[in-house]
Amino acid sequence: MTSAMHTEELTHRYGRRTALSGCTLDVPAGHVVGLVGPNGAGKSTLLQLACGLLDPTAGRIEVLGERPVSGSPRVGFVAQDTPVYAGLTVAEHLTLGARLNPAWDDGLARRRIAQAGLDPAQKAGKLSGGQRAQLALTVAAAKRPELLLLDEPVAALDPLARRAFLQSLMELAAEHGMSIVMSSHLVADLERVCDHLIVLVGSRVRVAGDVDELLAGHHRLVGPRRSAESLGAGRDVIEERHTDVQSTLVVRSTAPIDDPSWQVDSLSLEDLVLTYMSEGQPAGSRVLEGQR
């Protein structure tokens, strides 16, 4: 599989503070990838390393087979605050983009501006949050990058603005075939647009893969209390909870679960993400209080 981004033991420190440590992952090309994890997991730092805004303290990162370089025309980046120039009009943003980017697609830019209902004469500082996000996405996409990186692009948007932004994102992926990596806390939004998922916790990749395959391979089992070891080979227990009489397990299974004493349920994407985000915490395997 061709990689849009590949890291090995990637580390970045801000002085004494470590923001990313020993991160190893592979981002497949040609996919819309959701990057999710708790605050402090290193998501923003990873994306800034990928677009060359930061340099690694240790380890290695390759983007599109090359060392990341700031301003590369092959990579587009929309930061968390969807930066635009408040004193420039929408049209002036497009003019500036055309001057700075040799592969600038003016037709794409003007078409997206029209579709988003933006007034070319309006100054960016007067736009709503959703409109600024659409402008920032347009400028990044009109570079015609091979890889588009989005750091929490919809976090501050209202539901209607989020829906419009995500619709635009799906259209870009479908029409232009660019690889997209989007970090977000909003799992429902990721579920709408992403076909590949990476869960990053404490700089470590807890799980990664095709969304459909991940959902098909994970199950919640509920049944009479017993040891997780009784499941046998080919089944990894991700989370377990027990009362005196009942066990609830989340398992990743490469083999069918044919024991009729288990009730087998599928997981939602949010269930899957939360399970891996809480993996290793003491609460994951405790006996529930009041049910001893």
Automatic annotation (TrEMBL):
GO molecular function terms attached to this record: ATP binding; ATP hydrolysis activity
Keyword Transferase belongs to the record: no
Name of the molecule in the record: ABC-2 type transport system ATP-binding protein
Chain ranges of the ABC transporter domain: 5-227
UniProt keyword Nucleotide-binding present: yes
Pfam families: ABC_tran
Natural source organism: Actinoplanes octamycinicus
UniProt KW keywords: ATP-binding, Nucleotide-binding, Transport
PROSITE patterns: ABC_TRANSPORTER_2
